[in-house]
Records
---
Amino acid sequence: PGGGPGQGRLGVAVEPVTPDVARQLGLRNAEGLVIRQVDPNGAAAGAGLREGDVILEANRQALRSGSDLEAALKKAGGTVALLVSREGQTFYVTAQPR
């Protein structure tokens, strides 16, 4: 599971949050994409993202699959605003896909 070209541009490998994954991570609902791997030289690492973070939205578009992330990155063209959930906190980060 993980990485298409867009996720590569962001420097992450992601997989959809399933009910099982949500339980493992202690999430209230099964939405978004969990980051399984971060390229230390990628845009995501530069934005402070780390493994286990859940990307809920990209530029206010809900994400349910890697292709949703890919489409949002393509549409954005430049900087992308990501809504991220980490350990019960939700926050926005901006990343510049490469």
---
Amino acid sequence: MDIFLLRSSIAEGGALSLEGRQLVRALGNKLRLLEEPSFDRMLTSPVPAAVQTAELFADRLDYTGVIEVLPVLSGNAPPEVVTPLLLARGTSIVVVGDEPALSALGAFLIGRPSFPQLVHSQVSVIQNRKPAWRLRPGDPE
């Protein structure tokens, strides 16, 4: 099981800003250079900036599958409710959303009381219920 937690990028007025679009594109490009990720499904919060982040990220990674808007990812549902819905959608998924919901989900998935909060356009990967790696804007190549 691989779960990629991706925080939505920087927004202005509800939509991604120019800087936000640049950050998520750069993240997708960098990830593609590091490995050739493949996903069963991409799931996103219905918040417009999250949907735009998911679409740009998918484009950079040549992901042509479904990007599913999952209202339960909007931030108020507890991770105990969200997790079974996510795991039912595949063994390698991308979850796009915002804080504090993403770090709460990460903590639940790894069975710890906390998980480091993600910055805008950061991806943190959980493999087999353990934190594996993360990639943040500005991280060295």
---
Amino acid sequence: NDINKEENSKTLTTNVSWLKTTDGISIAFPENLNFNNIKGTVFLYRPSNKALDFEIPISLSNHNLLIPDKRLLDGRWNIKIDWKYNNNNYLFKTDINY
């Protein structure tokens, strides 16, 4: 199932991207999609400490979702964005150092 979602992501004109900011991590969804129809969940995994793992439901007022700095400790995080647009499911995974 995850493989199909990742394959669907490859068909997008622009995939999900992220950027570290002073406020936290900004996750940008494709601007050619209507953000009101984007639903899903962002999972953040801390490999060194499972107690810090958390998830955020995707609720957008524009094409960006901010994960606040206060939720993140410096170090390595695995991010998994499991999202849906209309009837298509997508998956974006990456490792970051915050």
---
Amino acid sequence: MISDSLLQGVYLFKDMTAEERARFAKIAETVAVAAGGRIFYAGEASTAMYLIKDGSVQITAQSAGGEAVDVATLAAGGHFGEMSLVDDAPRSAAAEAIEATHLFKFGYDDMRALLAAENGISDKFYRSLTRFLCKRLRQTTSDLTFAREKNLRHF
């Protein structure tokens, strides 16, 4: 079972009450992944978001040239797979366990049912998710600006 302290430490859930977090804990499924185990592939249908209990996960995408590009390395308390909850798009990257890893899997169907039934929880969750995605977009914009500036200097 997922602990309240783990959920409370994740920005998606920190604005919620213990009772509200307990509602999420009830829908979490425990998943064990061996070192090198693939959690999902880029391009496949998205069905769940994941929270890392222990271990670490590498997120990779493929460049236009076919090269693997490391996007992020996540450790305990990190989460991934949340974007498709909003847009239903296929996975944009792959996720693989770097070491033996234990995850909590939140199925989208269960999450959507909970969020539809509980407006207060839904408001807090989506507000936190929006702040996170905005922060990620700002970082991406900064990275892209830096990369383009660096590229232009070479010409």
